[in-house]
Amino acid sequence: MISVNNIGVEFGVKPLFSNVSFVVNDNDRIALVGKNGAGKSTLLKILYRLQSPTSGNVSVSSDTTIGYLPQVMNLKDDTTVREEASKAFAGISSLKAELDRLNAELAQREDYESESYLDLVERFTATHDKLQILGADNCEANLERTLSGLGFKRTDFDRPTKEFSGGWRMRIELAKILLQKPDVLLLDEPTNHLDIESIQWLEQFLSQSAKSVVLVSHDRAFLNNVTNRTLEISCGKIADYKVKYDQYVELRKERREQQIRAYENQQKEIADIKDFIERFRYKPTKAVQVQSRIKQLEKIVPIEIDEVDNSSMHLKFPPCMRSGDYPVICEDVRKDYGDHMVFGNVNLTVKRGEKVAFVGRNGEGKSTLVKCILNEIPYTGTLKIGHNVQIGYFAQNQAQMLDNSLTVFDTIDSVARGDVRLRINDILGAFMFGGEASEKKVSVLSGGEKSRLAMIRLLLEPVNLLILDEPTNHLDMRSKDVLKEAIKAFDGTAIVVSHDREFLDGLVTKVYEFGNGKVIEHIGGIYDFLQKHHTDSIDAATNNNPSPAASDAKAASEPSQGKQNYLEHKELQKKLNKMKKAVDKAESQIGELEKRLGELDELLLKPENSSNMEIVEEYTSIKAKLDEEVDNWEKLSEEYEQLSSQ
């Protein structure tokens, strides 16, 4: 479907990658992995023909259609959700018009035996078949099913897209791409703006309905549930693993250990050769051997070891001016879009130095309340910003606010003031933009690199109230950890909007839950909040937003056991899940062995096979394996029952 032939990409002296070749086949579900900046997003753009490689070429068969979801998109807000999603069927409308034209021409023709008439019939049939494949007769049903799967309610379909947050608008774009049913889907971080239910729906869709998929994601569970092949960009090359992500991690570990052993052996060999050359360079009797060793040394191809990202991002917010005791106070704040109430009667107080989380499903008003605090949109009620409060804001779409025509250095230089301008290179180096990387154009940066660059801009001015809206969306695990530690050490106040439970753990001391038009305050960390809801997922916890009274009653009747009990429960659940999988696997193997035993029974009943020792031996072997597997199943089932009763 897509053939990549010896492509290379260069943005400076050091190439991003070179001599890369692979093929995307039908039914491939490929995870594209590598450290931030390795070229994952660039490779997707090349596959979609948005960018050309420096060398080599990409071949796409003429009948192959490709759908591409980038990390960042320029979205328009002049239609309703239904109208915007219906744009996916523009191609179907064109095909219908073409079918009508062909049908009309067939009706006028009478040269039924001519070659041109037969060619016309063939084109009519091909166009009709394509319309059937695209589901032309079920467009509306497919549209509603897809939008519902991605989390939209039916009442949302006719609402203007401008009423939705950036995350929901990205879902509309994803819906449009899925509805087009392309032969190859290129998805760059598709789960960034999805809650758990939508992620599960997308997993099922990609596994069952998509033809071929190439995706970039930091969501390990998503990769494991969707992909069957892993392409790793490392050392500017592509390593192709025909396995899921978890298996790739193990194979990559083994591969790297082998590379290290081979590298060490090669270094020893090189050292021995050099030592021989130095020892006998000036001895005439050894001249032939020395020349032979020199040639041998020149022919050695250095062994490369797959790179591991050991770089570190040192992030430190500058000392801030002391603000008033209460940076943010909301009293009966309400926000409506037309007849739709986003939230009402919001009463909250954020104290100086607090780190608080805004959680809830996309569209419930988290980003909207942030915009109210920033005074970017009108609202009703009273919202007070405390004395001497200086706000630093990191938005979901921060990458879109960067000027793509500037270099990394110029982006920071344009906003730096005073002595900071003398330290720009040091600051960039701390954020892994040292050396040539500082001369890269913003347009060629990955999503994670753009997020880091936007974070540098936020650091240039001292602020005492940080508002971070989904700051981890484009960051890898290493960068998330560094950012988390920096916020913990920040001596000002922080409001963090996030779905990322692990990021919020140990960071926030208060959680505000958004849902059903309400904002409910929960004292304690994110694990205390989750424990109240008896779940380990923020999205699951916020699905059924209970009333404040119900929450208080539940909390009173069931005192919090704290994070420790929660983790113990979670560990037990992991063991149960693992044991259940083992039981199911044993049952499956028993079924397969019994099936084969039945087949062999039928074969042995035939007279001509009565003395066939090969069949008899297989029957004996299968019977022994079956007895062994039944014993194993009984043991596993007993252990599972004992564990379940704890």
UniProtKB/TrEMBL annotation:
Stretches of the chain forming a coiled coil according to its record: 569-646
ABC transporter domain span: 2-260, 328-541
GO MF, one annotated term: transferase activity
Keyword 4Fe-4S in record: no
Keywords linked to the UniProt accession: ATP-binding, Coiled coil, Nucleotide-binding, Repeat, Transferase
Record flagged with keyword ATP-binding: yes
Positions of region (Disordered): 538-565
Segments of skewed composition (Low complexity): 540-560
Family that this chain belongs to: Belongs to the ABC transporter superfamily. ABCF family. YbiT subfamily.
Entry protein name: Probable ATP-binding protein YbiT
Organism of provenance: Prevotella pectinovora
